[in-house]
Design goal:
5% helix, 2 helices, 46% strand, 329 residues, binds manganese (II) ion, mainly beta, single chain
Length: 329
C-alpha cells in the first residue's frame, strides 16, 4: 500500500523519541487510530495507528493501516498504482477479500486471507495493489517493518507464507512472523519480530508465553479485548513495553474477537519516514524522491498495471519531530 496523503509529513521516529515506560510494567497504552483516505473519487478510508505522536514504532513495526470490512461496491475497493518503497518491508495480511500484487521483481501474486505476503524494498522496489473483481468485501491490515541500518539497502525480495492455525484455549492463532504458541514462521526478518492473527471465542481467555525482550502491540479488529487488565476496543492498538513473559487476552464480547499481535525488540535507531520511504536523513528521503520522479532503475518497473504510476508528493520544508517526552503514567 502507498501512503496516499497529499501532504505527508516527514517524521523522525524511534531512537529516543518514543515515550519511555519502565520495563516490566503491565500498564497498557491504548492508541486510537486516525482515518486516512486512500485517495480516488470514492476513497476507501484506512485506520492508521502507527506512526502517531504518542508512539512511532513497536519493535521494527513502523506503520499500521487497518481497513474494512468495506463493501467494495460502495468504496470502490483498493486500487493503488505503482509506487516505490525504500528501507522497509511491507506486510499484507487480509481477513476477507483478495488483492492482486505486482512488483518490479516481476512477481504477480494474489494476497488472500490467512496468507502472508512480505515484500522487501531495501535499496528500492515498486509495486501496485488492486483488489480483484471477485472481491465483494475488503478487510485486512497493511503493515511496514523498518530495516536496520546494516540491511536497509538489501536487495528486493518477496515471500509468501500460509501458516497453519494453532488451536488452543478457545483461540485460533496464525503466526505469520516470528514464533508464538509453538508455531514458528519460516519467513526471514532483519530484526526479532512477531506478527500473528489471534481469533478468540466469545468470553475466551488466552495466556501466551512471549519474549520478555519484546514490546508488543495488540490491534483489535473486532470485539473488545482485555489485555493485561486494560480494555482495548475495536480499531484500537494496545501497547505493552518489554519485560513481560506472558500476555493474557480475554474476549469481553459475545462474538468472536479478532486481533493482530505485533511484537519485537525495541528498534534503537532513529529513522526518517516520509511518504513511502524510510531513510536516516532528510537527504536520503530527498534522493529517493528524486530517483522515483526520474524513473531511476533504483525502483524498477511494474509490468501489467493498467494505468500510470503514482507521482511523489512535494517534499515538505521541515522534518516534523514528534514530542520527545509524552506524559508518563
Ligand atoms: Mn506499497
Amino acid at each position: 500500500m502507498s501512503n496516499v496523503e497529499t501532504k505527508p509529513a516527514e517524521l523522525r521516529c524511534g531512537g529516543a523519541v518514543d515515550g519511555e515506560q519502565p520495563a516490566g510494567t503491565a500498564r497498557v497504552d491504548v492508541l486510537t487510530p486516525r482515518a486516512v483516505p486512500l485517495g480516488g473519487p470514492r476513497a476507501m478510508t484506512v485506520r492508521r495507528t502507527l506512526p502517531q505522536r504518542a508512539r512511532t514504532l513497536i519493535g521494527a513495526w513502523c506503520f499500521a493501516d487497518h481497513y474494512g470490512p468495506d463493501d467494495v461496491s460502495v468504496t470502490g475497493g483498493m486500487n493503488v498504482a505503482p509506487h516505490p518503497h525504500t528501507g522497509l518491508q511491507t506486510v499484507s495480511w487480509l481477513f476477507t477479500g483478495e488483492i492482486e500484487h505486482r512488483d518490479s521483481m516481476g512477481n504477480h501474486a494474489l494476497v488472500r486471507p490467512g496468507e502472508l505476503n512480505l515484500m522487501t524494498g531495501g535499496y528500492g522496489i515498486s509495486h501496485s495493489e488492486v483488489s480483484t473483481p471477485r472481491t465483494t468485501v475488503l478487510h485486512g491490515v497493511q503493515l511496514w517493518v523498518a530495516l536496520p541500518q546494516e540491511h536497509r539497502s538489501t536487495g528486493r525480495d518477496f515471500q509468501h507464507y500460509a501458516p497453519e492455525p494453532v488451536l488452543t484455549d478457545g483461540a485460533e492463532t496464525r503466526v505469520f512472523l516470528g514464533s508464538l504458541a509453538g508455531s514458528v514462521s519460516p519467513v526471514t526478518t532483519f530484526t526479532p519480530l512477531l506478527g500473528a492473527e489471534i481469533l478468540l471465542r466469545p468470553r475466551a481467555t488466552l495466556t501466551l508465553a512471549v519474549d520478555p525482550d519484546f514490546e508488543h502491540g495488540l490491534l483489535v479488529d473486532q470485539g473488545e479485548v482485555r489485555l493485561a487488565g486494560t480494555s482495548v476496543g475495536a480499531s484500537e492498538l494496545g501497547y505493552l513495553p518489554p519485560g513481560l513473559d506472558t500476555l493474557t487476552l480475554t474476549n469481553q464480547s459475545d462474538g468472536i474477537a479478532r486481533t493482530v499481535l505485533l511484537g519485537g525488540t525495541p528498534f534503537e535507531e532513529e529513522i526518517v519516514m516520509w511518504w513511502n520511504f524510510i531513510g536516516r536523513s532528510h537527504e536520503d528521503i530527498a534522493k529517493a524522491r528524486e530517483d522515483w520522479q526520474n524513473s531511476s532503475d533504483r525502483f524498477g518497473a511494474v509490468e501489467g498495471y493498467p494505468g500510470d504510476r503514482l507521482p511523489a508528493p512535494a517534499l515538505p520544508n521541515a522534518v516534523i519531530t514528534p514530542r520527545r517526552n509524552p506524559p508518563r503514567h
